[in-house]
């Protein structure tokens, strides 16, 4: 097996996942799958297995004990559908209450699924709610034991802090909110602040695991190669910001990656031969998001005119 990605044995208490995935998660997926922290997250580039491990962790939880459980998805239906399909694929059909089979009734951001639990007496049901960020207030009146937020970078902060955190409080349940996401565009994004900022407080409540797209050996090799080539900047030949984010799972445009020693804009006078210039000032304009980082030099001549060479 190429790279560092090992298959590891994880106890998954239901057959269909065992059959389909060969009973294995990858070694980087496993600690996330097993984490009991309050807000763990698995993030990374396109196709690294975020939705797969998220759905596995979720289904594992609802089959372990009967509970109300919630999946929160971005508003975009196309994106949301992928997570629902992964979930559907992983839930053993014999667990679904017959009249609810085929899952999903969807109305405007509200989707609801009912499941019975394997090997449990009828009546001890887990119930899965699906909600999109379109209707965050419909989350507040739920009382659930576990929450999975997929594509978290496209869900807003209000949905998490004011609705999801509040709803995840059912007594005697894991009371865990776990997430899967692609890194946001820059460090001002709320997801960066809570899960990626190396200086974030409460790290132990927000642990993260990650993996790069090229390390998923299950993906078509030619396709992955094409993705990586396509992500190169045509001018410099280097990996573009979107490639770093979408394939390598890095936050693009991060200040720390450009000048790790600076945390702010520094401007200082530069000693320069008089009499030509009265004053020469240099500074660095840090590029955030898609903007480039720039070094600026401004000179003032004897008449007080500013020139930017
Ligand atoms: N542990 C695993 N074992 C085998 N295949 C996996 C595993 N995790 C993910 N995959 C496969 O990798 C592909 C991408 O996974 P997916 O979860 O859709 O990625 P993401 O959500 O990160 O884009 C899928 O075909 C999925 O079945
Ligand atoms: Mg996904």
Jot down its keywords.
about 300 residues, alpha/beta, Rossmann fold, 2 domains, 8-stranded mixed β-sheet, 4-stranded antiparallel β-sheet, 10 helices, 14 strands, about 25% strand, binds adenosine-5'-diphosphate, binds magnesium ion
Structure commentary:
By secondary structure, the chain is α/β, with parallel strands linked by helices. The chain is elongated. The protein has helices spanning 15-21, 29-34, 50-64, 77-90, 137-140, 157-167, 190-196, 221-230, 241-246, 255-258, and strands spanning 7-9, 24-26, 41-44, 68-73, 105-107, 110-116, 125-132, 146-150, 176-181, 208-211, 267-269, 277-285, 294-301, 306-307. The chain is built from ten helices and 14 strands. The model is unreliable at 1-18, 99-109 and 254-265 (pLDDT under 50). It has two domains: 7-222, P-loop containing nucleotide triphosphate hydrolases (Rossmann fold), CATH 3.40.50.300; 267-307, no CATH class. The strands form three sheets. The chain has an eight-stranded mixed sheet with strand order 5-6-7-4-8-9-3-10. The site of adenosine-5'-diphosphate (ADP) has 14 residues, from strand 2 and helix 3.
């Amino acid at each position: 097996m190429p790279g560092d990605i090992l298959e590891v044995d994880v106890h998954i208490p239901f057959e269909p996942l065992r059959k389909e995935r060969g009973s294995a998660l990858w070694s980087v997926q496993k600690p996330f799958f097993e984490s009991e922290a309050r807000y763990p997250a698995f993030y990374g580039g396109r196709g690294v297995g975020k939705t797969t491990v998220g759905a596995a962790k979720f289904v594992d939880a609802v089959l372990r004990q009967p509970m109300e459980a919630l999946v929160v998805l971005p508003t975009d239906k196309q994106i949301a559908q992928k997570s629902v399909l992964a979930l559907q694929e992983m839930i053993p059909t014999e667990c679904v209450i017959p009249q609810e089979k085929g899952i999903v009734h969807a109305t405007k951001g509200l989707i609801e699924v009912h499941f019975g639990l394997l090997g449990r007496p009828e009546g001890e049901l887990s119930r899965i709610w699906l909600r999109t960020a379109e209707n965050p207030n419909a989350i507040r009146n739920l009382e659930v034991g576990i929450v999975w937020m997929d594509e978290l970078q496209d869900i807003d902060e209000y949905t998490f802090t004011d609705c999801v955190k509040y709803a995840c409080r059912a007594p005697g349940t894991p009371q865990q909110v776990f997430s899967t996401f692609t890194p946001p565009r820059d460090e001002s994004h709320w997801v960066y602040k809570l899960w990626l900022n190396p200086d974030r407080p409460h790290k132990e409540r927000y642990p993260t695991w990650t993996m790069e797209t090229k390390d998923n050996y299950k993906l078509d090799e030619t396709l992955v190669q094409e993705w990586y080539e396509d992500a190169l900047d045509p001018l410099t030949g280097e990996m573009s910001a979107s490639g770093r984010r979408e394939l390598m799972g890095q936050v693009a445009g991060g200040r720390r990656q450009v000048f790790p020693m600076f945390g702010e804009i520094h401007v200082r006078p530069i000693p320069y031969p008089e009499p030509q210039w009265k004053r020469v000032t240099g500074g660095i304009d840090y590029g955030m998001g898609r903007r480039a980082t720039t070094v600026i030099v401004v000179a003032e001549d004897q008449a007080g005119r500013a020139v930017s060479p």
